[in-house]
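Support request, please re-run this one:
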Amino acid sequence: MYMAVTHQVKVTVEPTFEPDRSDPSESRYFWRYEIEIVNLGDKPVTLIERHWRITDSEGRNEEVHGPGVVGEQPTIMPGESFRYASGCPLTTSSGVMVGEYQMIDADGDRFDVAIPAFSLDSPDVKRTLN
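Re-run finished. Output below.
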């Protein structure tokens, strides 16, 4: 698991390689990742946007921007959490993802929350540091 705390919001990520959705002979690799966002503060926060930077083991970069996550812009009350799962395809057997969520609090203040960098590694291939 990977974890970061920014502005009293904790983000935990757990990636899992999905062999049934991968085909190394076709240079297709797929990971599922589960994310938990916990509001450690004393005000509700709403996740407005996401921004991902995805880098494969050959150094190719992709950026992903969009509203919310999995079609939602959840409001997370103090002491509560929001969980979701998504996935990432790559054409290499390893890579890394990192990003941030843009949030807004009950006072209308916007701020970024770090999504910790996490490694995507196929268990069948020698591990590459990314």
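Residues 2-121 form a domain with the Immunoglobulin-like fold (CATH 2.60.40.1470). Strands lie at 2-6, 9-17, 29-39, 45-56, 61-67, 75-76, 81-90, 94-105, 110-121.
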